[in-house]
Design a protein that fits this description.
mainly alpha, 2 domains, two-stranded antiparallel sheet, 4 helices
């Protein structure tokens, strides 16, 4: 993963996600006013309701949360990604440490100062 992707991930978490949450919050205020004339208005309420997710039992146990919202899901996404990268680094390092040095099947013959 390049530095650009890492910066994009951090940018999403630090800048873009809070911006989206603020937009939904402000949209809710506007929709509350619109509902006085148009009762069907409710897109931001639907977004907020759709954000809630009940994870599988294993995830509930690990996260100690019965419901996950967008913040929780985003945090878990980055935690799983970081764990996968850490496991890959450990596996690669163990592989390098366990690999025996390659033995050459060729014999070298010295002819004066030149190795053939």
């Amino acid at each position: 993963m390049g530095w650009g992707r890492i910066a994009a991930c951090v940018g999403w978490r630090v800048w873009y996600h809070p911006l989206l949450k603020a937009a939904v919050g402000h949209g809710t205020v506007i929709e509350d006013e619109v509902k006085k004339s148009l009762p069907q208005a409710g897109m931001t309420a639907a977004i907020t309701a759709g954000s809630t997710h009940r994870p599988a039992a294993v995830i509930r146990f690990v996260s100690r949360k019965s419901e996950m919202h967008s913040d929780d899901k985003l945090t878990r996404f980055y935690q799983v990604g970081a764990a996968a990268l850490l496991l890959a680094v450990i596996a690669l390092q163990v592989g390098v440490l366990l690999r025996a040095p390659a033995k050459s099947s060729r014999r070298s013959v010295t002819c004066g100062s030149v190795v053939v």
